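Appendix B: a complete holo record

For completeness, this appendix reproduces one full record from the ligand-bound portion of the collection. The bound molecule is pyridoxal-5'-phosphate. The inputs are the chain sequence and the ligand SMILES; the output is the full three-dimensional arrangement of the complex, encoded as C-alpha cells. No fields have been trimmed.
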Amino acid sequence: MSEKLETVSKVTIPLSEPFLGGNEREYLLQCLETNYVSSIGPFVSRFEKDFTSCVGAKYSVATSSGTTALHLALRLLGVASGDEVLVSTFTFVASANVIAYVGGTPVFIDSEPRSWNLDPDLLVSEVKRRAKIGRLPKAILVVHIYGHPADLDPILEVARQYEIPVVEDAAQSLGAYYKGRHVSTFGVLGCFSFNGNKVVTTGGGGIIVTDHLELAQRAKHLSTQATLPGAEYHHDEIGYNYRLSNLQAALGVAQLEQLPSFLQKKRAVAARYHDSFKDLPGVSLIQEAPWARSSWWMYSLLIEPEEFGCDRNEVLARLREKGIQSRPVWTPLHTMPLYSNCHRVGGQVAEKLFSCGLNLPCSVGLSNLAQDLVIDSVKDCCSV
Ligand SMILES: *Cc1c(COP(=O)(O)O)cnc(C)c1O
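The structure of the chain with pyridoxal-5'-phosphate bound, as generated:
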C-alpha cells in the first residue's frame, strides 16, 4: 500500500466527506438505464434549473469544476494578457491560478481579522490609488471564505464607481447569504464548486451563475468547444471541453434536494464546536457578522500558543494520532514562491491566520460521538 493510502486508511474522522443520503442512487440508475451517462441528458439542464432557483440567479451554466467555472468567468469578462485582477490572498490556489490561465496577474489583498475575508478597506483604497495612477484592475475576484460572506457593499460600491466587474468565487459558500441575498448574485458572475469536499458534491463539477443572458449563452458556448449550430464541426473561437456530465448532474440534483438539511447540520456542528471552545484560553473563533448567514462549510479556529499551551502544529499532530483529520488553514498565496512576484496589499493578517489557524472535521454525516472525540482531543491539548 502506498504511504498516502495508508495515511488515509488510518483516518477515522475525515475533515469533510460527502453525504449521499438521498436520491443519488436512484438518479444514477436512471442515467444507466437510459444510456445518458455523458455530456447530454436531462439531469444537466435539471441541475442548472434547480441551482438557479436555489441561489436566486437568472441563469446557470454547469461546468466540469469550480476552477473551470472561474476560468470561463474571466474569459467572459475579457481578462487577458497584462491585465491585473484584485483577489484575496487568503484562499485556495485556484482563485489565483485562473487569473494566470488567461495571462493576467493577481494582486493580493489581505484579510480582515473578523471573518478572514478580503478586507474591504484595503481593497477600496487600492482601487482609488490605482485610479489616480491610471492602472485600474480589469476585474475584482471576491472569495467568500469557509462559507462566510465577504462584506460586499463597500466592494461593490467602489467597483461600480470605477466600472470594474466583480466575480464572486462562492466555491465554499453554497447556502451563504449577505444581507438576506444569496452570495454569487451580487457580482456580474458567480462561481461554485461541487468537488467532493464542498457543501454539495457532483463527484467533481462546478457552475457559473449570472443575471445576464448573453454571458450565460457565451459561457455555454465556450464550455462546449465554441461549437456553432449545425452538423459540421465549425467553431468560432477557442473553446474548452468544460461540461458537466449527466452522471455528475444526477448526483448534483439529488444533493441539492438535501441542501436545507445539510446546512442545518453544518450550522449545528459549528454551534456545538463554538459552545465547547468559546471559553478555552488562547482560542479564537469565527462569529457570523450581523449581516451574514454562513454556510459553515469549514469549521476553523485560531490557536494562540502562549495562552493555549501548545501551538497549532502540535494540535494537528495530536489529532492525527487519534485518527482525526484536521488541516492548517489556507497558505496565503502571496507567500508561495509561484506568486511571490505579484503585488500585494498588506498580508500580515493572512500570515497570522495561517500560523495559528486550523480546520476541524465538519462533515454533514459527523456523529455527535465523533464530534465529542474531536472536542475532547482539542481540549486535551490545552494545558491550562
Ligand atoms: C474548491 C475551490 C475552488 C476550485 O474548485 P474545484 O471544483 O476544486 O476546481 C476554487 N476556489 C475556491 C475558493 C475553492 O474552495
